[in-house]
Amino acid sequence: MVDFSKLHPETQLVQGGINRSPYGETSESLFLTQGFVYETAEAAEARFKGEEPGFIYSRYANPTVDMFEKRMCLLEGAEDARATASGMAAVSSALLCQLQAGDHIVAAKQLFGSCRWVVETLAPKYGIETTLIDGTKTEQWEAACKANTKVFFFESPTNPMLALIDIAAVAKLAKSKGVTTVIDNVFATPVLQKPLELGIDVVCYSATKHIDGQGRCLGGVVLSSKEWIDENLHDYFRHTGPSMSPFNAWTLLKGLETLSLRVEKQTDNAGKVADWLAEQTAIGKVLYPGRDDHPQAELARQQMKGGSTMICFEMKGGKAAAFAFENALEIIRISNNLGDAKSLVTHPATTTHKNLSEEARLEQGILPGSVRLSVGLEHSDDLIADLAQALEKAGA
Questions:
Q1: For residue 132, what are the β-bridge partners?
Q2: What pTM value is reported for the model?
Q3: What is the rounded CA–CA span in Å between residue 126 and residue 122?
């Protein structure tokens, strides 16, 4: 029997986790069922006791969802996983399942708006203390740590400004203090960055982004050791119900088959587009981890295999210039999604991060002229031509 854990990621993404039915189908089976039947009452009892393997209820586990989880484990190098209905279901589950009143979270202030809401607004409602820091400064993680600190939470690269956090350093510090680390790895993808190998305990993804990568469905996943899943997430997941739809799991399995191909091509495109943007006089600053002028370029080379599919840049004319530029684009579409095969652009200050205070946005470097670009699979020359004509039409 093949040990898929020893094979290359490209093979894992096509073959990993497949559990074929007696019909011997080529593609993964789609099990659209809520429940499962048992031959006898004794068999049902044994399955509920955990004495007999098998599925009980699709809120707990489902054969199609199980295939998706197993394939993600192979790719990430994790022992276990739980697939969720969305990326935010993954993040909130990963945090709340291990916390209680009186505990303390330290989180980087450089977070996606909804992630920051969970930390800054939701958690305190349940008596969980929170401290937000500049995650790029490792010394601030240590300074913020208290006796009741239970979790460090961050993104790297961050949304939308593509700041990097020293993953290995933060993970080492956390282990020395008995703190669990949780990372949202959505911008880097498991193709370009492996947080578990760098010492992280728990990895979250919005599978809606690159894993699907074709604008079709929502999904999320939490990956960790089997021990952590069993002790923290298992019961929380079963009883609160953030489970993934089997149909979405099947769609995401199809997305995984091409994940490496898409991310590698999109990253190549993003590098070319970032280099072109950096030469334009109407643009004040370009942030791309794959460029030598990124403030943390050396760290990017240490912990990432590529610069990512994302670019952030600043229009010198502020919000008006950013809006005029976005409205003039013809190939690249305005959308708050990312990681798609289609190139997408958004204005973070008025979309993904609009609910943050102006002060909080400025702390992250989000300016009125900041634009986030998710680079797709189109030809890079066509994308550059579209950006050029949009700058010209916008009078930039």
A1: 107
A2: 0.96
A3: 7
Angle, helices 318-328/380-393, rounded to nearest 10 degrees: 130
Pick the CATH number of 7-253 from 3.40.50.2300, 3.40.640.10, 3.40.50.300, 3.90.1570.10: 3.40.640.10
Alpha carbons 396 and 386: distance in angstroms, whole number:
14
Closest CA to 229 of 70, 80, 17: 80
User: What is the C-alpha separation between 179 and 157, in angstroms, rounded?
Assistant: 21
Per-residue pLDDT band for 1 (boundaries 50, 70, 90) equals: confident
pLDDT digits over 243-284, tens only? 999 999 999 999 999 999 999 999 999 999 999 999 999 999
Query: CB-based contacts of 102: which residues, under 8 Å, 6+ apart?
Result: 127, 128, 129, 148
Amino acid at 282: A
Residues 278-297, mean pLDDT to the nearest whole number: 97
Q: What is the pLDDT of residue 396?
A: 65
What is the C-alpha separation between 187 and 309, in angstroms, rounded? 8
DSSP 8-state symbol, 17: T
| Average model confidence (pLDDT) across the chain | 97
* 273 backbone dihedrals φ, ψ, rounded to 5°: -65, -40
The per-residue b/e assignment along 186-216, b for 16 or more CB within 10 angstroms, e otherwise, is bbbbbbbbbbbebbbbbbbbbbbbbbbbbee
Q: Which residues of 17-45 are buried (b: 16+ CB within 10 A; e: fewer)?
A: bbeeeeeeeeebebbeeeebeeeeeeebe
| Architecture of the domain whose range is 259-393 | Alpha-Beta Complex (3.90)
290: tokens are 């794959």
**pLDDT given for residue 250 in this prediction:** 98
Q: Where are the domains of the chain?
A: 7-253, 259-393
DSSP assigned state of 199: T
Q: Could you report the per-residue pLDDT of 204-239, keeping only the tens digit for each?
A: 999 999 999 999 999 999 999 999 999 999 999 999
- Coil, strand or helix: which one is 6? helix
What's the CA gap between 119 and 128, in Å, rounded?
9
What SS3 state is found at 134?
coil
**Residue that wins the pLDDT comparison between 372 and 6:** 372
